[in-house]
Here is the input.
Amino acid sequence: MDRLIYSAVSGMNASMVRQRAIASNMANAQTTGFKAEIFDSRPVTLDGGPVEVRAQNRTEVRGAQMADGSVNDTGRPLDIAMQGDILLAVQALDGTEAYTRRGDLSVSPTGVLQTGDGLPVIGDAGPVTVPLGGDIAIAPDGAILLADPAVPEAAPEQIGRLKLASASGSDLVKGLDGQFRVRGGGILPADLDAKVVTGALEGSNVVPSEVLVDMIEAQRLFDIRTNVVSTARDLDESAARLMRLS
Here is the structure.
């Protein structure tokens, strides 16, 4: 009987992981550049004699759905939208290089070019800083252009270039902070042929209606596994009473 309970409780834990991922997707349905988290469930058995029959269910978030989100024009010179397998390099909170699809860029009061969630953008020479007071814009090839508002007739000067990388063929994982990293460490090389859509932002690729269906299914599966535990307990109590009577 303990084998049934073990498997059911393990399945309940897996359902909770799935529900957390679904909740994260729903919460980020309007987040710029967000990629829906994907998860899978695998049966895992224990090695060693009689315990091998005690199977458990392991569910983990293993990546993200990289389908493009809708691109919406904003007209802002620092907004960029990436499509296909292109990612923008940023400096994560732990100082490592990470990658994102979030393209709502801005300049901090100290001149750091950063994403909408405050992460410094990495260029061809590390984190990008720009002179304050100038007009900054991003070109389709990722070039960072600086124009002097006092001389409107002068051509903008290129002061750097965003590091745009291709995720094609790379083993990337999505961290709890929502950023992508190379599995096991390392960095992606810059893709000099990468292009972005300027003056636009990519929306989340989460489809709320699909997430709601997933949420209902996950809750029903959790309830079923809860009932299995209750049934196993009742059967165990019945068996114990019969043994006492005999």
